Amino acid sequence: MTDQNVLQQGNLRSFSRYLVDNQRPREDSVIWKQSSILQALQTEEFTTRGALFLENPHREKQGETLHDLSVTVQVIHPDARTMPHSHSFWHLYVVISGKGELVVDNKSPTPLASGDIIYVPAWSEHQFINQENENLVLYVIQNLPGMAKQGTLLRNDGDKTYSTHSQ
User: Fold this and answer.
1) Is the dihedral of CA 100, 85, 63, 65 positive or negative?
2) Could you tell me which of 72, 91, 74 has the C-alpha nearest to residue 143?
3) CA-CA 20 to 30 A from 155: which of 16, 48, 77, 88?
4) DSSP secondary-structure letter at 45?
């Protein structure tokens, strides 16, 4: 039998040591200025899947804006649409500017306008459509980092499914 076929023996640690090892210092506050975000949107190249990630310099784990969550900026250009897709993480969208439509689970399109907030649960197929003359700009809060950390991040784009374990 080779070492590859043998399970590794786990370690035991006292619960009080576990608690000490998992203490974290209090984080500092962070601000992302709207003017900086708007300026970056003018210079960054991006797709309908995403434009900017709000990076928190105090997070130990890359890809998190706050514990197990990320905040991104998504822009749907005029006469553009996202591909209908679903995934194992949820979204909370805030419409910052523009107008558009959201199709969830093949239901009738729902009109969107600045100030609207939309929750899309995990595995709900969704698609944004912008038939207006200005960008549809969304802030997106999602539990993607937490799902990736757990190894349960999955995405379905039509007939293709991707995971954190896909190559």
Assistant:
1) positive
2) 91
3) 77
4) -
